[in-house]
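Researcher: I'd like a candidate sequence for this fold, 202 residues long. If you have to choose between options at a position, lean toward the conservative one.
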């Protein structure tokens, strides 16, 4: 079964953490996570990488069960095979997608999801799964000078994390501009995609 859980801010809402564990269906101490911090560039983004790790440890994930994958070296298929979760962190959406394209990591993401394992995204790690990442233009610096905003297309919606009411006009502009459904997510929400449904959870 397809299991994709795309968050705005990780487990800031504890209910999302509970759903995360429920989807894996394995004793928490046995859960093995492939943790991708590639999107983080700035000190602030790196701070949130550490916050994400601590959230996992506080939930009972064992430190030795967390394997860091930076995408700057060949991906070990054996590591993918023995992992239960692909956890893709937040940061700069353009940088993350550029590296994924360069390393052809998309095929590994698709294989991971096809095997019924959980893909968990945070912010940029959530946005990239949609059909377009153009929604990130007002928020992330495009140092890569990217002009092809095509996402991985593994979900139908364009996700806009960290949504606050002041951004409603901006979201409406993108709804008029892009031919895809746009789903804003607050930091208390996530977007769940399975074979049966796609819905906001909180």
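Model: Candidate sequence:
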């Amino acid at each position: 079964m397809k299991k994709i859980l795309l968050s705005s801010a990780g487990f800031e809402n504890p209910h999302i953490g509970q759903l995360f564990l429920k989807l894996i269906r394995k004793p928490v101490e046995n859960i093995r996570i492939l943790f991708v911090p590639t999107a983080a560039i700035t000190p602030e983004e790196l701070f949130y990488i550490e916050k994400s790790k601590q959230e996992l440890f506080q939930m009972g994930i064992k430190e030795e069960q967390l394997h860091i994958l930076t995408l700057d070296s060949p991906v070990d298929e054996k590591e993918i095979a023995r992992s239960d979760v692909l956890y893709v962190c937040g940061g700069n959406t353009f940088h993350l997608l550029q590296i994924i394209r360069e390393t052809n990591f998309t095929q590994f993401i698709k294989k991971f999801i096809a095997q019924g394992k959980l893909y968990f995204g945070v912010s940029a790690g959530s946005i990239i799964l949609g059909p377009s990442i153009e929604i990130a233009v007002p928020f992330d610096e495009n140092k890569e000078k990217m002009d092809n905003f095509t996402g991985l297309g593994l979900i139908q919606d364009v996700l806009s994390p960290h949504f606050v009411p002041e951004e409603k006009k901006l979201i409406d502009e993108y709804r008029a501009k892009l031919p895809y459904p746009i789903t804003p997510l607050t930091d208390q929400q996530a977007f769940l995609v399975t074979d049966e449904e796609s819905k906001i959870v909180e």
